[in-house]
Design goal:
alpha+beta; Nucleoside Triphosphate Pyrophosphohydrolase; six-stranded mixed β-sheet; about 40% strand
Length: about 180
Amino acid sequence: MQKSFLLDYFTRKIYNFIMPVSVAIAFVKNSDDELLLIRRVRGDYVGYWGLPGGKIEDNEHISESAVREIIEETDVSASFLKYLGTVSEILRSGKTTKHFLLHIVELRANHFRAKEQNEGESRWFSKEDIESWEIKIIPSDKLIIRNFWLAPTEKIYFNCKMRETRDKLVITYFD
């Protein structure tokens, strides 16, 4: 894994381009139709609630990655239901630009006892909780939640641009 990271880093530096990082992001709902979110304590979105998920590893399918990440981040075992769509997200923070290909999937939880893991606190939220938007949710995840759960459309692909200011993340484009 370290070798892959270093190769990716130097490839980006030498050729001065951004290679997208493939990420599996999951909608996991409980029997009360509540959505599982985690409050990030590491990475790009510290302090924000977001959909659980993470980087797809070498030789790993999207479905396998999503199931693995849910277990690692929330201790909830789940099974793959369906692929929902893709969001191409570009995050600018100062002089740094990151590009993520977010593969959105739906999983069925095998149990509903989420536990805090290394990635942060996990909790179930009702549609009403989320629609109030009083929760500090990653801005792109808010739009993903809206477009794939709260008010789903037929569209399965979105482009997203986001920038980080001193104290918050701002969506500059989502379509």
